[in-house]
Amino acid sequence: MDEATYRILDMLARNLGRPMSIHELTGKIEETYGGAYYANIHEKIRELTKESILLLSKAGRSSLISLHFENYLLIDLLAE
Fold first, then answer.
1. DSSP classification of residue 75
2. Which long-range contacts (CB under 8 A, 24 or more apart) does 10-17 make?
3. Euclidean distance between CA atoms 54 and 20, whole angstroms
4. What is the pTM of this model?
5. What is the mean pLDDT of residues 64-73?
6. Region 65-73: what's the mean pLDDT?
């Protein structure tokens, strides 16, 4: 698992049950790990959504991200 994936999954796991916008997620990653770029986070989220690791839903003009627990691979990724 690459560093960006780890950071995204870590932040979402710390806030279970609360979908986050990409902007909010980027801010929390920056606070916790000291660095994050919106473009990199956005691209990684797109990849993880295609793999059905994350769910992406629209709320107005924002996209909300949450963990997709119906994918059995997510549990393995979180265990890493």
1. H
2. 12/54, 12/65, 12/66, 12/67, 13/67, 13/78, 16/67
3. 11
4. 0.86
5. 88
6. 88
Give the tens place of pLDDT for each residue, 24-53.
Answer: 999 999 999 988 889 999 999 999 999 999
Residue 35: partners with Cβ closer than 8 Å, 6 or more residues away: none
Pairwise CA distance, residues 10 & 29, whole Å: 9
Q: How far apart are CA 68 and CA 29, in angstroms?
A: 20
**Three-class SS of residue 50?**
helix
CB 56 within 8 A of CB 65: yes
Amino acid found at 1: M
Q: Which two tokens stand for residue 3?
A: 């560093």
